[in-house]
Structures are given as structure tokens and as C-alpha cells.
TrEMBL record:
GO terms for molecular function: signaling receptor binding. This is Sushi repeat-containing protein SRPX2. It is found in: Cell surface; Cytoplasm; Secreted; Synapse. Keywords: Angiogenesis, Cell adhesion, Cytoplasm, Disulfide bond, Repeat, Secreted, Signal, Sushi, Synapse. Disulfide bonds join 136-163, 278-305. InterPro entries: DUF4174 (IPR025232), HYR_dom (IPR003410), SRPX-like (IPR043555), Sushi/SCR/CCP_sf (IPR035976), Sushi_SCR_CCP_dom (IPR000436).
Length: 451
């Protein structure tokens, strides 16, 4: 009796000192001090334990034939795919009841999330050992494991896969094309329809041009045009085609002897125009220009440069000057007589400069003496007295002293000299003030011709 009181006091003391403490005695057993008398004639004190979807394993202190008698301990376990809820072990108590209850609950895994652009199908839903297979929409491919299995502890094997867009888009370029350059040009304006692109996954695609824009001028030769397209997954597709521009050309046109050509555009392409020009002392005979035709031939016939014919027997000054208008410059030299010292000095300084005068398109007219013995000449060609008088009056040239009058190609009085000039000084003035850019270039090309 003393021992029973001791146990009660111990329990009360422990509870009073620790009012917030909870002990888990789930699988602990307390023996009562008072042991009831066993009825050995009827030893089955507790009902036979059962566990649906599980197994019960019991052991009795009195041996295997007394599985439900006082003190029998039974261990509870569940079949695969089930989780034990309750006590894992129970004992038959003196009150003929088991110390607890247990049952087996079907074990499930959590519901799998849907994957974008894909789906899955499972063999047994989300219970243990169910296998879920993943598939992707057209145009996508599985990245990761193709299936997951619900494991016996209620977790899925592996990790959730992804559906990735791996199929590149499709793009088709327009056909290659050939175009002839426009007349007088080395380019051609070419246009085409923009290519279309499709993709199994994306509806909106950005097509990028690599090369020259359509409806612009393309240069002669082969021009490669590329297009590329990316879908949202950065899969790439590309196509290309060729724009070929042909420049139709005529054979190179040779310049005339004693002359040269100036051509537009590239010189011998379709639509180019070449104009004929003659060197000093020569004049053009034939067409002034020719055009390169589409059939690759030059229009017209070749022109030629022939020595300039000066008609000195004309009756009027205008008839004489019209022969030089826009063709030659005139240097009119006047002296009182042939023995004038300034005139003689002038002859000494420029007597060897005929070539230089021709290169600069200059013709010299000499007016010497006074009537009735006055002479006018262009080299050996003598002028009519009426023409001589007309020149003196038109350009106010005196017979009293030596002078020179320089006229440009328009017949304008550009400069007067009252003393003889060396050829270098005269040529320097002409080069600086009277020659245009083209004449300067020609002069540079033929400067050594007179040496």
C-alpha cells in the first residue's frame, strides 16, 4: 500500500512543478502496481487486433499461443503505398483494451503542376507507384526527364521537366533576279516582296534584313541579300538570294587623231555620251558626239580632227572672226613697220613658241605698217585691207606704236601689252586667266610635247 501512495505523490509533484510540459507517452507503457488475477481458463483478454492494408506482429510474455492476453505487445506496419497513422505498437492492458489504435491510410503524392506548352498522363493518378509521362506540344521538346514516379514516401522522383521550343522557324526568300542598269547609270533600282516566316510555336516573328533595302539603287555586279528570323526561344532560320545588276557596255571608243574625247557616266556604258574635241590647230569633221546604244554599239560614225582651214580672203572682219569664235584665241600684234625694234624683239622671244600657242589654242594676227603699204597676215596668209581696217577700229589698235591685244574665245578684249613679252610670261597669263579646267588638264598631258 505504501508503494501505491508513493507513485501518486510522484505524479502530483511532477505535474504541479511543470504545468506547461507535455510528455509524449505514445509508445510507453506503465505497469500497474496492482496486478489483476489472470483467468487462465479464458486467457483472451483483448480482441484480436486487425490492420486493414497492413500487418500486425504480436508477441506475448506467455508465448505464441497467448497473442491477446495481458501484456501482449503488437507492432503495426502498413503495406507499400500506405502510411501508418496512430500507434506503431500497442499492448493489451488489464482493462482488456489495447493501449491505442492504428490504421493505414493510402499514401498520395502532391498534384503535379502543368508545364507550359505540354501535358502529362499518369498510370494511377497521384498514388504511390503511379508513373506520369510528359509530352510537349508540336514544335516543343522535353528538356529533362520524360517521366516521374510517385515514391513510397509520397514524393515524386526527379524534377519537373520543361518544354523548350527547339524547332527553328521557316523562312522563304524571293527568287534571285537580274536587272539591266538604267541608261547613263551604273545602278538599277530593284524591288521585291518581303519574305514570310512561320513557326510552330510563335505566331509573331521578326524578320531581319541583312543587306541593302529593296526599292533602292543597286551597284553593278552581284549583291547578296540575306534575311534571318528568330523565334521567342532564339531559334534561328535564314535564307538568301542574289540581286545581279548588269551594265551593258559598248567597245571602248578610241579618241580621234589630233583630238580627244569627253564622256559622261562611265565612258562606255549604255546611255553614255562621248563628245569629240580637237587639239589646237585642228577642227572637227563629222558628228560632235556618239551615244552607247542598248545593243552595245555606238550610234553614228566616228568623227575626225582635220587641220583648221582659215579663209583669209574674206571681205569683212566679222567673216574672219567667226572662224575663230569659240575655237581659238587671237593675239593681234601691231607695229609701225617691220623694222620696229619692239616688233623684232617680240619675234625673237616667241619665234619658237608656235607649239605652245597651238596647245593654248592661240592664233597670231600681225598688222604691220601704214596705208597704202599696210600688211595684215596670219602666218603666210594675207588679209584684205578692209578686214585690216575693221580689226583696228573694232579693237582700237593704233598704227603709231607697238602693241598686242589678246582676245578670248568669245572675241572679248582680255589684255593689252604695249611692250614685247617673252613666251613664258604670255603663256603664264593665258594659263592663269583664260584656260578652263579641262584645258589645263589637257595642257598638263601634252606639256612635254613641245620639248
Amino acid at each position: 500500500m505504501l508503494s501505491c501512495r508513493f507513485v501518486v505523490v510522484f505524479i502530483l509533484f511532477f505535474a504541479a512543478g511543470h504545468s506547461t510540459t507535455v510528455y509524449d507517452s505514445y509508445n510507453d507503457f506503465t505497469e500497474e502496481d496492482h496486478t489483476p488475477q489472470l483467468d487462465y481458463k479464458n486467457p483472451h483478454w483483448c480482441h484480436t487486433p486487425r490492420l486493414t492494408n497492413g500487418e500486425v506482429t504480436c508477441r506475448s510474455p506467455r508465448g505464441g499461443g497467448h497473442r491477446s492476453t495481458l501484456g501482449t505487445i503488437c507492432e503495426m506496419s502498413c503495406d507499400r503505398g500506405y502510411r501508418l497513422l496512430g500507434r506503431s505498437a500497442i499492448q493489451c492492458l488489464a482493462n482488456r483494451r489495447w493501449s491505442g489504435t492504428s490504421y493505414c491510410r493510402l499514401m498520395r503524392c502532391h498534384v503535379l503542376n502543368l508545364i507550359p506548352h505540354g501535358r502529362y498522363t499518369c498510370t494511377r493518378g497521384f498514388v504511390v507507384d503511379s508513373r506520369c509521362e510528359f509530352t510537349c506540344d508540336p514544335g516543343y521538346r522535353i528538356e529533362g526527364e520524360h517521366s516521374r514516379t510517385c515514391q513510397h514516401r509520397g514524393s515524386w522522383s526527379g524534377v519537373q521537366p520543361l518544354c523548350s521550343d527547339t524547332d527553328p522557324p521557316k523562312i522563304k526568300c524571293p527568287p534571285s533576279r537580274l536587272k539591266v542598269a538604267e541608261p547613263g547609270k551604273l545602278t538599277a533600282r530593284v524591288t521585291w516582296d518581303l519574305p514570310t516566316a512561320t513557326d510552330t510555336a510563335d505566331k509573331s516573328l521578326e524578320v531581319i534584313l541583312v543587306g541593302q533595302e529593296p526599292d533602292t539603287d543597286f551597284k553593278e555586279g552581284v549583291n547578296i541579300i540575306r534575311y534571318k528570323v528568330y523565334d521567342q526561344a532564339r531559334n534561328r532560320a535564314a535564307c538568301k538570294f542574289i540581286v545581279r545588276v548588269e551594265v551593258r557596255r559598248c567597245p571602248t571608243l578610241p579618241p580621234p587623231m589630233h583630238g580627244y574625247l569627253t564622256c559622261s557616266s562611265d565612258g562606255n556604258n549604255y546611255g553614255a555620251t562621248c563628245e569629240y574635241h580637237c587639239d589646237g590647230g585642228y577642227e572637227l569633221r563629222g558628228v560632235s558626239s556618239r551615244v552607247c546604244q542598248f545593243n552595245r554599239n555606238w550610234g553614228g560614225s566616228p568623227a575626225e580632227c582635220v587641220p583648221m582651214e582659215i579663209k583669209s580672203d574674206v571681205k569683212t572682219t566679222s567673216a574672219l572672226l567667226d572662224q575663230f569664235y569659240e575655237k581659238r584665241r587671237l593675239l593681234i600684234v601691231s607695229a609701225p613697220n617691220i623694222s620696229d625694234p619692239d616688233y623684232q624683239l617680240h619675234n625673237i622671244m616667241i619665234q619658237k613658241s608656235d607649239c605652245g600657242l597651238d596647245l593654248r589654242h592661240v592664233t597670231v594676227i600681225e598688222l604691220l605698217g601704214s596705208p597704202p603699204r599696210e600688211t595684215g597676215r596670219i602666218k603666210e596668209l594675207l588679209l584684205n585691207p578692209e578686214v585690216i581696217e575693221g580689226l583696228r577700229q573694232a579693237f582700237r589698235i593704233s598704227r603709231s606704236y607697238f602693241s598686242m591685244v589678246l582676245l578670248d574665245k568669245l572675241g572679248q578684249d582680255r589684255e593689252r601689252f604695249i611692250y614685247p613679252m617673252a613666251s613664258d610670261e604670255l603663256f603664264s597669263y593665258i594659263d592663269s586667266f583664260l584656260l578652263d579646267e579641262e584645258e589645263r588638264e589637257r595642257l598638263e598631258l601634252h606639256r612635254d610635247f613641245c620639248d
